[in-house]
TrEMBL record:
<dbReference type="InterPro" id="IPR006203">
    <property type="entry name" value="GHMP_knse_ATP-bd_CS"/>
</dbReference>
<feature type="binding site">
    <location>
        <position position="128"/>
    </location>
    <ligand>
        <name>Mg(2+)</name>
    </ligand>
</feature>
<feature type="domain" description="GHMP kinase C-terminal">
    <location>
        <begin position="283"/>
        <end position="364"/>
    </location>
</feature>
<feature type="domain" description="Galactokinase N-terminal">
    <location>
        <begin position="8"/>
        <end position="57"/>
    </location>
</feature>
<dbReference type="InterPro" id="IPR013750">
    <property type="entry name" value="GHMP_kinase_C_dom"/>
</dbReference>
<dbReference type="GO" id="GO:0004335">
    <property type="term" value="F:galactokinase activity"/>
</dbReference>
<dbReference type="Pfam" id="PF10509">
    <property type="entry name" value="GalKase_gal_bdg"/>
</dbReference>
<dbReference type="InterPro" id="IPR014721">
    <property type="entry name" value="Ribsml_uS5_D2-typ_fold_subgr"/>
</dbReference>
<feature type="binding site">
    <location>
        <begin position="33"/>
        <end position="36"/>
    </location>
    <ligand>
        <name>substrate</name>
    </ligand>
</feature>
<keyword id="KW-0808">Transferase</keyword>
<feature type="binding site">
    <location>
        <begin position="122"/>
        <end position="128"/>
    </location>
    <ligand>
        <name>ATP</name>
    </ligand>
</feature>
<dbReference type="InterPro" id="IPR006206">
    <property type="entry name" value="Mevalonate/galactokinase"/>
</dbReference>
<keyword id="KW-0963">Cytoplasm</keyword>
<dbReference type="Pfam" id="PF00288">
    <property type="entry name" value="GHMP_kinases_N"/>
</dbReference>
<comment type="pathway">
    <text>Carbohydrate metabolism; galactose metabolism.</text>
</comment>
<keyword id="KW-0299">Galactose metabolism</keyword>
<keyword id="KW-0067">ATP-binding</keyword>
């Protein structure tokens, strides 16, 4: 759907008048998984598909939320902006507006909002972060609140925590809000220091494989991993003064791993700390033009997520196994929270068609699920369209 069509949909619903349009992208994380809430490094890039928000102030004391992707709508009065509403999609934008209110920035008048997104839901490409960030950027702009972009990122993360019940790290919102076209973000999730690293993939494409086995971060498994990581920190603290796993080097971990008596908790920590090292090494490899090395580290990332962190599952493992059989695949791994969702693969140009055909056929034969593939372009972060 193009911008003019979206504007017409807005007019059909809310009536004629000026309308502002904003966009925030989904993201794919090239490497660095389940490190963000442990204060480690991640390496995501924005995609060219995402979520649009069309918005206009109204003459009422309420906000109206509607989406072209789902049927249910909501009308929330200004004095109810800080309360979640059941398990509804509009809790994501509502949760962001609540953060403004908590900062003492309560709107004096309401607005009409219409959303449309082309990020596949449940694919692990951060449709929720795109929805949060597009709301934050739009509200910040039309109400003149002048919050810095990094502050909007933090507000998006808090909306996820408080209104969706997912104790996510900050990577998804940061990538959606801060990324630049043709660059990936090398982000320290503890300090929020970041570097925009050019993604130069001469003769190579990023191919995302949607398993169509939707991931469910709010199923409790994600929050369980967060708790296990905290348990690892607690076991290590008598021997090393740390607040989160990201403070440990790989060498530090080898010294203290035996102090973590629970074998499962030790495995979780081993993944996090080895993944942080892999991410650093992968960024160095990309800068040096060593794509084969980058691909090997992607493979190592998936294997660690499968064996030590146990967040992959049959569908993701099957798709990665089939991907690695194809000549021209440099590396392949799960991306996102896991428990379903998507894979990301680096595939040589001449192998892309064969990859999509063969991996798709073999994956469906083994799982009974029909996958979808996207040859990804590295897009721009959140911005006003018009």
């Amino acid at each position: 759907m193009n911008i003019e069509e979206l504007k017409q949909q807005f007019v059909n619903k809310y009536g004629k008048g000026e309308v502002s349009v904003y966009f925030s992208p989904g993201r794919v994380n090239l490497i660095g998984e389940h490190t963000d809430y442990n204060g480690g490094f991640v390496f995501p890039c924005a995609l060219t598909f995402g979520t649009y928000c069309l918005i206009r102030k109204n003459d009422k004391k309420s906000f109206h939320f509607a989406s072209l992707n789902v049927e249910n709508e909501a009308d929330i009065t200004i004095d109810q902006l800080t309360e979640p509403v059941g398990n509804e999609w509009f809790n994501y934008p509502l949760g962001v507006i609540a953060q403004f209110v908590k900062k003492g920035k309560t709107p004096d008048i309401g607005a009409d909002l219409l959303f449309w997104g082309n990020v596949p839901n449940g694919a692990g490409l951060s449709s929720s972060a795109a929805l949060e960030m597009v709301t934050g950027v739009a509200i910040n702009d039309i109400y003149g609140y002048a919050e810095e972009r990094v502050e909007l990122v933090k507000m998006g993360q808090m909306a996820e925590h408080e209104f969706a019940g997912v104790h996510c790290g900050i990577m998804d919102q940061f990538a959606s809000g801060m990324a630049h076209k043709d660059h990936a973000l090398f982000l320290n999730c503890d300090t929020l220091d970041y570097e925009q690293v050019p993604v130069k993939l001469d003769g190579v494409k990023i191919v995302i494989g949607n398993t169509n086995s939707p991931h469910k971060l709010d199923s409790g498994m994600y929050n369980k991993r967060v708790a296990e990581c905290k348990a690892a920190v607690k076991a290590i603290q008598p021997f090393k003064s740390i607040k989160q796993l990201g403070e440990l080097s790989w060498e530090d971990f080898l010294e203290v791993q035996d102090k973590i008596e629970d074998e499962t908790v030790r495995k979780r920590a081993r993944h996090v700390i080895s993944e942080i090292k892999r991410t650093r090494d992968a960024v160095d490899a990309l800068k040096a033009g060593k794509l084969e090395k980058f691909g090997q580290l992607m493979n190592g990332s998936h294997d660690s997520l499968r064996d030590d962190y146990e967040v992959t599952g049959n569908e993701l493992d099957t798709m990665v196994e089939e991907a690695r059989k194809i000549d021209g695949v440099i590396g392949s791994r799960m991306t996102g929270g896991g428990f379903g969702g998507s894979t990301v693969s680096l595939v040589k140009d001449e192998a892309v068609d064969a990859f999509i055909e063969q991996v798709g056929r073999n994956y469906e034969a083994r799982t009974g699920l029909k996958p979808e593939f996207y040859v990804a372009e590295v897009g721009e972060g959140s911005h006003k369209v018009c």
